Amino acid sequence: MRMARNNILHEIQIALLVCCFGVIATSALALSPRTFVSGLGNDANSCATTAAPCRTLQRAHNETSAGGEVNVLDAASYGDVVITKAISIVNDSGGTALVQTGGTGIRINAGASDAMHLRGLTIVGLNTVGHGVYFDTGASVDIVNCMIRKVNDGVVLPSTSTTPRKFSIVNTTITDTARAIDLQPFGSGEVRGAIDGLIANKNGFGLHFGGTGLTVAAKFNVSVTRSVLSDNASSALHVFSSAGGNVPKVTVQDSTISGNETTGVNVNTAGEISLARTNVVGNAVGAQIVTGGTIFSMGDNNFALNNSDGVALTPFAPK
Amino acid sequence: MAIVYSYSFGFVFAIVAAFGISAAPAQALVNQAIVSSQGVDNATCGAPTAPCRTLQVAHNNVVAGGEVDIVNSGEFGPVFINKSISIVNDTAGDANVTQPTAGGTAIIINAGFSGIVHLRGLNLDGQNAAAFGVRVFSVGALDLINCVARRFTHSGITITPSVGSKILIDRTIASNNGIGVFVRPTDSLRVTINRSTMANNTTYGLYVDGALAPQVATVAVAVVDSAATGNQQGFHAVTAATHATTKLALNNVEASLNVFGVVAATGSQVSLAHSLVSDNSNSGARRVGGTIFSLGDNSFRLNAIDVSGGAMTPYSPK
Fold first, then answer.
1. In principle, which of A73, A110, A280, B152 could form an S-S bond with B126, CB 3.0–4.6 Å?
2. HSE-CB for B14 with a 13 A CA cutoff
3. Which residue numbers of B have CB closer than 8 Å to A's CBs?
4. pTM value?
5. What is the DSSP letter of B52?
């Protein structure tokens, strides 16, 4: 009888332990839909409250559930981050949210249907090598109110994809890079992007878009509005592809392309650029076509103070 | 060139002493230093848990190419910059850099021909005593973003580099100075002025002068979505024979409430498009030996005289 009672107590003890251990195990695995980072934070914290913020973006990313958001609380340097899930990283004037890198600041290796949102971040290279935002895999990325400087490539779309990718770059400034935005997609996945309110200033190339690796059928369409692409050592906008290959199409409107040391806009071998209500001023050459490609104009662009305005543009009518 | 350098060096040396630049610190330099109005200056300050108190000490404590970030409102003091650096206020607060000394300078930049300097969110105040707000002696690349330079007796932003430079001025206000933005390089210079305001300065809103740069140099300034109002002259471009041609492209700007709105003086080339030139008490546009190219789509309203000193040269859109 005593033995049976001890067995029952023993079983109850085991049941309690399993119950408690189960609860503890669940808490250790639970991710939070919103996490926080602070210069006064600690990566041993849960990241899940403003009272327990983490210290690095990578730690906070890892503690955030898919589709969740990392919030920056104050100014600090938060380290490089590799993104492997749908996530937002947001700084809405908590202070400078600095990613200071000698490699890749933000690398996106997410799922083909994942959406990323990066807002209010400052990505600065320590030695002008590496990448700012490297969009390897994922469905879309929004880059809003960001500052990207002193890396080799500010925003890069480099790699092979058979699934569609989209991006938006809004109210962002990219300076002191070799290529502010370098899009050279490969494969068959279409690329479509909107650039609004970009300042690409003092880079080698401003926008560097190559269709050579993309299938002919895939769309490669980018719009550029209300942007200033100025004082770049090569071209503000350089579009290139292979003969008979994919034709990247870039639409520029209400923008200023100025002070560029080689060309304002340039097409090489294949590609289309259209210009409307845009200032092309103070460049070495305003518009240039090398070997093939087309530059369309709505006839209302301001070409002035260029050493040479460059090629004649192909007109298209407003509606 | 050598004479200019010697003068600058002697002047700079005096400023070094005045600003308290230390000799190379014994402590290792860090990549980033935080500055707070509750901070304490010392040779090791800068961590978020131990911020510095002044920009100068934070500047001294970071590596070349490092970053100084301000976390709250306060007075953070004048600073002498002698290396690549970023000094950033990205908060909702006021990061004040006040120079109360007569004839003084709030921020001196002598970063060298490869120097990359980035200033953001700073409020520079000369209190009608100091002479210069941001004074550029040498830099390779400079950003002034979301800054304010007011009440400096010579100029709010003084761009007089001795080496080739590229400068971005974005969302910046230069007001209530002698001159708002003063540009007179001795080498090639490209400047982009975007979404900025040069208002209520005593003489010029923007003054661009290529007369000290050699003829082969490029002196090119592009102004976009900006305004020069309430100055004696809103926009003024000038150079001298056998020196660099000054090119000033004005795109979607406002030149209003000045005595002279847009002035193209000796040897300069000014282009004017999509702009408003209004209510200038002498002339909207005036030529004094320079050329003004007009896209023909500008509004000239309420000026005493719309164009004086010779006609603008029309050109067509493309």
1. B152
2. 7
3. 31-32, 34, 48-49, 65, 67, 69-71, 86, 88, 90-92, 116, 118, 120, 141, 143, 145, 166, 168, 170, 190-192, 194, 220, 222, 224, 247, 249, 251-252, 269, 271, 273-274, 293, 295, 315, 317-318
4. 0.92
5. B
